[in-house]
Specification:
By secondary structure, this protein is an alpha+beta fold. It has 3 domains: about 10-120, Nucleoside Triphosphate Pyrophosphohydrolase (Alpha-Beta Complex), CATH 3.90.79; about 125-150, no CATH class; about 155-275, Nucleoside Triphosphate Pyrophosphohydrolase. Helix content is about 20%, strand content about 30%. The longest helix is centred in the middle third of the chain and has 19 residues, at about 100-120. Keywords: Hydrolase, Magnesium, Metal-binding, NAD. This is NAD(+) diphosphatase.
């Protein structure tokens, strides 16, 4: 999965640092990410940005994390201009999943998540005062009332519902992603994860499940979530009652009919392939 980057090591301890010419920079604007496209798409270094922009932007940088000895910094949206540059360009953030190798994709996804955190918390939700970046931890702090906000991590379940040699596959309604997926949903207040599994399966496809078994979890920066995977067995009738506001399709599919060209990026894909290959 995308976070499994060994032998590379991800370090997310909070520091206040200044970028060096060899530091990597992450810059996002209006749903796009800045990438170097000279050979293949890759995250640019700070030295490339300085050459392109002509001005030092180190005062607009926030240290995010390191992978091995590579440091990554976020540059705020107003700091740079790309006018006349031929090596750097903005690309839709949807390309992040396709960056190679996988640990580069992981870095870009986490950078996008932290960009959203800073962008969405510029003002205090309690009193409306402009927030300030903390100097001791990764948070936004209100200088007026002291309200502190941390990066959002929402728990959500991914559920592989099985019925003998069949797996329940779904497609989202109204989304760009059109491949088969699994039942999924966010945990509500007061719920255990297992209760979320039962509720989401009932709400989305009208089915009851039993023998709920935890499989694995995955930090999913694309939706600021912690995904928790479960396998569950059908309990009762297999008749699907589709919630068309959430899903466009839901079908029971035999192992041999499940597509085998899923990637190793997501927990959803791993669980689907696990069932297809008779390992779950």
């Amino acid at each position: 999965m995308i976070q499994e980057i060994a032998p590379h090591r991800f370090r997310n301890e909070f520091y206040i640092k200044t970028p060096s010419p060899d530091s990597y920079i992450l810059y996002f604007q209006d749903g796009s990410i800045l990438l170097n496209h000279t050979d293949s798409l890759k995250i640019p270094k700070f030295s490339e940005l300085m050459a392109a922009d002509g001005d030092s932007v180190s005062g607009h940088c926030d240290y995010l994390f390191s992978i091995d000895d590579r440091e990554y910094f976020l540059i705020d949206e107003t700091a740079i201009s790309l006018s006349g540059n031929e090596t750097l360009a903005l690309y839709p953030t949807s390309v992040i999943r396709d960056l190679e190798p996988l640990w580069i994709s992981f870095a870009a996804a986490n950078g996008a998540e932290l960009h959203r955190f800073y962008r969405n918390n510029r003002f205090c939700g309690r009193c409306g005062t402009a927030n300030m970046k903390s100097k001791k931890e990764r948070s936004m702090v209100c200088p007026c009332c002291g309200n502190t906000v941390y990066p959002k991590i929402a728990p959500a379940v991914i559920v592989a519902v099985t019925n003998g040699d069949k797996l329940l596959l779904t497609k989202y309604a109204g989304r760009e992603y059109t491949r088969y997926a699994l039942v999924a949903g966010y945990t509500e207040f007061g719920e255990t994860l297992e209760e979320t599994v039962r509720r989401e399966v009932m709400e989305e496809v009208g089915l009851k499940v039993t023998n709920i078994r935890y499989y694995k979890n995955q930090p999913w920066a694309f939706s600021d979530s912690m995904l928790v995977g479960f396998f569950a067995e059908l309990d009762g009738s297999p008749q699907i009652h589709l919630d068309e506001t959430e899903l466009s399709t839901a079908v029971w599919m035999k192992r041999e009919d499940i597509p085998g060209d899923y990637t190793n990026v997501s927990l959803t894909h791993e669980m689907i392939l696990l069932f297809k290959n008779g390992l779950a």
